Amino acid sequence: MKKTLFITGLLVTTLLLGPIACQNELDVQNPNSPTLLGSVVDEESFVSFIQGTTYGNGFSRGSNWLGNSYFSLPWGYHELLADNVGASAANNQITNIGQPANVDLGNGTTLSNPTSQVNIIRTFNNRAATGAGNNALYYQWAHMYALINACNQILANADRIIYASGSDKATKVNTIKAWCYWWKGYAYASIGSMYVAGLINNEISPETSLSSKVSRDYVSKEAIIAESDSFFNLAKTTLQAITNNAQYSAMLGSLIPAVCKVGNGGVLTTAEWIRNINTMLARNIVVNKLSPFVNGNPNAVITKSLMTPMTVADWNNVKALTTDGVQPGDKIFTARSTDVGSTTIFSANAGNVAAQTATNASTATFKISERFLQYFKKDNLGVIIDARFANNFSTTSTYTDNYVYSTRYTLRNGGAGAVGVKVLASRTAGAYEVVIAGSWEENALMAAEANIRTGSINDGLILIDQVRVAQGAGLAPLAGSGIALVPALNELVSERRISLIFRGLSFYDNRRWGWSYDKSLGGGVFGQFVRNGGTNYTNATVNYNFLDYWDIPADEIVLNPPSGTSVPVTNTNY
Q1: pLDDT value of residue 534
Q2: Would you call 420 exposed, middle or buried from its count of C-beta atoms within 10 A (0-12, 13-18, 19+)?
Q3: Tell me, what DSSP letter sits at residue 259?
Q4: How far, in Å, CA of 338 to CA of 254, rounded?
Q5: pLDDT tens column, 415-426
Q6: How far from 486 is each of 40, 217, 306, CA to CA, in Å?
Q7: 397, 20 Cβ separation under 8 angstroms
Q8: Residue 440 to residues 82, 106, 496, Cα–Cα distance (Å)
């Protein structure tokens, strides 16, 4: 990465934490300051530095455009692309980014978007547009390379720090290294799953000993995913070598902010952490390979895609990884909001896309989509019977405008109070848990899909049932029903969309199932609910024609022009 991109942007601000956690949490200096090596010399200051650069650079600092964290605008784009939400405001191109090419209402009327999503993205992929907050390509890229840069600095200094007298330095250093390998694996996975190419930046510049060494060799998304896998596996071997569990737990506990150590978050055992890694390794396979399921056809073909098809070997690899992936009760990596004035990562009202949706539909930044709501199960009379629907959605306010973001429903703030039923959003400080990486639900549903796709349909249905029970859906069990491949995949699709909403995953699903591609290429999504001009349509066909992988942001390629051996930095299929 070009240093100027982040020195003047994401890494320049000092983030100070108030009294909600220990005094030194996230109280760090600018990590690119020339005094860093002189001021961060002992364990206490180094832990503060690690927290501040990991959570600050990766998820908070620099995200004051629409919301105030990585989980608001960058993940908001994902939810828009997935058609889980819509947006009518002009901010940051959120109205345009999720607009499909056209919608056939099923009555002979087709509504077309005069400006394609691809054209919108490329028109605003320039540095001036970034400065004005209109370049959607910038945010995810910037945060993830800032996170990689932070981890490079931590790794370069971990051995020189003076640790507490009498403590097990080797265990502490290995815990810190595993931390960095994990977050680098996470960041490279994010880049490789979203962008057509990327940079492998793993060295500190010898000129500064602070920022990552500049690379101009852009490599393929496959190479970036391979780099992610490499760091995840390096984290695993590092954790496997740790034997002093007390020193490990103490160090890991000091790296995770207090607000992230409640609910499903907390201090992971080495075994739990390894299972989290396995879930992320499985995700790298699942979200980056085609497994089309278009219009009820599990053998659909997408004729032009940057993704290669899933194979039986891939599905078997997913089954192996998820078998030792996140299990019920395992601790995972999470984040929560805090009160204004003592913010660690994000605020309660604007810091994540769920909170930005959970208010009056007419004024909400994001409006829950009719296409999302149709996946809740109904009885024979068309009445929704999934308890998660009544607990999370109401008709107290509606919004009627463009067909993409018109909706009859509002996402409830904090749910309706049903005992044991999953709450999908809250604007109360500390109440909503952002799942940063993998979870048991995601792991179970990847295993379910792998089983269904490889002939063990009932084993997959058992896992879907388990997720529904855990979230209080109140639905009749699927296991033992004897349903065939297509209805089983329909259940899988429904459950992934509902239980994994607001986690930045659903666009990847739409892409790999073939829905995001143009109908002429075999894509599109059928039988959709659309509200247009106050009229509800229940058999619409949505033709998205979205970029499957995004171009590299102009901020990067202008400051850091590709070398002669670089792969293309734009998606050549569009």
Answers
A1: 86
A2: exposed
A3: G
A4: 18
A5: 999 999 999 999
A6: 58, 43, 25
A7: no
A8: 22, 39, 12
Q: Please state, in angstroms and as integers, the Cα–Cα distance from residue 78 to each residue in 379, 464, 504, 507, 511, following that order.
A: 30, 24, 5, 6, 11
- The pTM for the full model equals 0.93
Q: Among candidates 274, 212, 211, 308, which has minimal Cα distance to 511?
A: 308
Look-up: residue for tokens 């509902």? 498
466-493: average pLDDT: 98
DSSP category for residue 164: P
Write out the DSSP string of 445-507. Answer: HHHHHHHHHTT-HHHHHHHHHHHHHHTT--PPP-TTS---HHHHHHHHHHHHHHHTTTSS-HH
Q: What is the full DSSP assignment across 437-455? A: S--HHHHHHHHHHHHHHTT
pLDDT in tens, 320-376: 999 999 999 999 999 999 875 545 689 999 999 999 999 999 899 999 999 999 999
Give the tens place of pLDDT for each residue, 96-132. 999 999 999 999 999 999 999 999 999 999 999 999 9
Rounded Cα gap, residues 382 and 526, in angstroms: 18
The two three-digit tokens of residue 418, written as one number: 């049903």
Closest CA to 400 of 220, 524, 567, 535: 535
- In the block, residue with structure tokens 């530095």: 49
